[in-house]
Amino acid sequence: MQDLYVALALVLVIEGIMPFVSPEKWRVTVIMIAQQSDKVIRMIGLGAMLLGLLLVTLLRSGSAT
């Protein structure tokens, strides 16, 4: 359970980097994403989840060092 909490904390850190470093570019990016169709947003989300799952699998198996 501790790993889940650490993972969620890292998500918050990573999500906060862009608005902290460049709020204007972050705002423009969010507006551009909001203008996309639901299908495009879902595909981006699916791609991100699959990439994350692949990375976790590789890191947990010890293949990626």
From TrEMBL:
<keyword id="KW-0812">Transmembrane</keyword>
<feature type="transmembrane region" description="Helical">
    <location>
        <begin position="40"/>
        <end position="59"/>
    </location>
</feature>
<dbReference type="InterPro" id="IPR019201">
    <property type="entry name" value="DUF2065"/>
</dbReference>
<protein>
    <recommendedName>
        <fullName>DUF2065 domain-containing protein</fullName>
    </recommendedName>
</protein>
<dbReference type="Pfam" id="PF09838">
    <property type="entry name" value="DUF2065"/>
</dbReference>
<keyword id="KW-1133">Transmembrane helix</keyword>
<keyword id="KW-0472">Membrane</keyword>
